[in-house]
Amino acid sequence: MILPTPILLTNDDGIDAPGIRALHDAFGNTPTLIAPSTVRSGCSHAITMESRLEAEVRSPAEISVSGTPADCVRLALHGLMEPPALVLSGINEGGNLGHDIYLSGTVAAAREAAFYGVPSIAVSRYFKADETIDWPRTTRLAREVIETLLPRETKPGEFWNINLPHLEAGAPDPEVVFCERCTRALPLEYHADAEGYYYRRGFYHTRDRDPGADVEVCFSGKIAVTLLRI
To answer: Could you say which DSSP state residue 94 is in?
Structure first.
């Protein structure tokens, strides 16, 4: 299909993360990469206001930014590239489902674009502990789903959130399911010691889920696609 151009590609795992490289490979040399210089996972919709943002131009189509994913989108819209016709954010290493969408920098980048009326899609890959992600297959599935979404019209303030599931080696390609966002909160537990409190992250895979919503869909081995609204 004919892709809208130019395309901005960003993430919250950092510009050198395998997920963003996989998504770049899916679309050849079409996208311009403007992404954080370091991992900014879980930064939500934070922006840099008091300190200087530094941009390292690695090539005309690849720029590393010292800020957050939302910063990257803002800079793209205000001079670092020709204003994008499409923003793709990901592929995030880990799911961004339900409650996660408020914590995720990857989703925030797509949301920031939507504030400015730019079509945008966030892409994440749920994985289980000790799994090695099959990036070539993940890349192919991501591109296929993105291409099915591009012809669909969205209203101002809407954007897409894709979550690819964990897949066993040799398993057939998963079904694509359009679903709502899960409304259940993430389970919380903190470990305390003499110096403070540490968040324990081991409950993600056993989290509560609404029937038929994105967490249940993705955890059952299907591709969850959710239309999010500002």
So the answer is: B
